[in-house]
Design brief:
Elements (H helix, E strand, L loop, with lengths): L6 H72 L4 H6 L4 H4 L9
Keywords: Membrane, Transmembrane, Transmembrane helix
C-alpha cells in the first residue's frame, strides 16, 4: 500500500479503497440475505403445498358435487318433485337454485 498522499490523488485513492471495501461488505451481506430469503421462501412454499393445495382440491370437489346435485335436481323436477320435497330429500339450497339463508337480506 503506497503512502497516502494529500490532494486530489490521495482523495481518489482513499475513495477507491473505500468503495472496494464497501463492495466486499455489501457482497457478503447480500449472500447472507439471499440465503435467509431462500430459506424463508422454501418454508412458505412447502407450507403452501401442505396446507393450501388440499383446501383448493376440496373447494374444487365441492363445486363438482354441487354441479352433480344440480343435474339430479333438474331430473327430479322434470319428474314433478317440488322444492320442498327436494329439500326433504337432503339436497342443499344451492343445488335447488335458492339463495342460502346467509345471503338473504
Amino acid at each position: 500500500m503506497p503512502a497516502q498522499e494529500g490532494g486530489l490523488k490521495g482523495f481518489f485513492y482513499r475513495a477507491g479503497a473505500s468503495f472496494y471495501s464497501g463492495g466486499i461488505y455489501v457482497k457478503e451481506k447480500s449472500y447472507m440475505l439471499a440465503s435467509i430469503a431462500g430459506k424463508v421462501g422454501f418454508v412458505v412454499a412447502t407450507t403452501s403445498i401442505a396446507v393450501l393445495m388440499p383446501l383448493i382440491f376440496e373447494i374444487m370437489r365441492e363445486g363438482q358435487m354441487i354441479e352433480a346435485d344440480k343435474l339430479q335436481v333438474k331430473e327430479l323436477r322434470s319428474q314433478g318433485y317440488s322444492d320442498g320435497q327436494l329439500q326433504e330429500m337432503g339436497f342443499p339450497k344451492i343445488s335447488l337454485g335458492l339463495a342460502p339463508a346467509v345471503l338473504k337480506s
